[in-house]
Amino acid sequence: MNKKVLPTITLGDYQISRLIIGHNPFKGNSHFSEAMDRDMREYFTQERMIETLFECERQGLTVMQSRGDQEIMAMVDEYRQRGGKLHWICQTATEWDDIPDNIHTIARHRPIAIYHHGSHTDSLYKEGRLEVVRDYLKLVRDLGLLVGVGTHMPEIIEHIEEHNWDVDFYMACLYNLSKVERTSMLVSGERTEEPFDDADREIMCDTIRKTSKTCLAFKILAASRKATTPAAVREAFEFAFRHIKPTDAVVVGMFPKYKNQIEENARIVREVVG
Hints:
Blueprint: E1 8-11, E2 14-17, E3 19-22, H1 34-43, H2 46-58, E4 63-67, H3 70-81, E5 87-91, H4 99-107, E6 113-116, H5 118-126, H6 131-142, E7 146-151, H7 154-162, E8 169-173, H8 185-188, H9 199-210, E9 214-218, H10 230-243, E10 249-253, H11 261-273
Parallel strand pairs: 3-10, 4-5, 5-6, 6-7, 7-8, 8-9, 9-10
Antiparallel strand pairs: 1-2
Helix pairs in contact: 2-3, 7-9, 10-11
């Protein structure tokens, strides 16, 4: 396979590309419209998911990020059986009634890291029950994996930093979707109107820069809202890399049905960062 090269950072004992493919398109969760959800679900058979991951390898990505549900775990197993080499950063699946069992199950499929689902983190924080997350993270550490927390709320990262939790990285959304009451569509099965306020980007990026921990910034394209033109896409990448740390990376969902978004995004990252 003729591979290209992308800039990298260190996460634990791993060198990972600063561009990571995200999982939402694989699950038909566009955060944009029901029509796009359907289009993604119809396109992403297991075979096309695997083809997409191999294209990521060709374009220099070394990491995928996805949720730890049965469909994705089966896909990851098949991808690896075919020789797939991407490292896997996995999110807990909140609809799995027993989260510790979910973590144990994910671990058997050999990710390099497990992080706690951001929407669930936010809900527990609002309920005053964030310590539940800390218990889950201790289990991940005990299993010998890198430990992360996902969130859309800067104050959660600030709380964890203040209380010196044992974490390796944050999955940090540039948009605070949890300003409204919401549950992930993949958990509830229902779409919620979500606020994409550009003012949130500065606030989260300020929090990202204040922590020495690695941050994986996601929704840098505002779930396609900043992908209307090639210039808009490039501006969104430029904004993200200007405002996060050199030790951070971005996670971007990619939908190659109509054009090779993987190649385009990788080229932009090489140009902007390289």
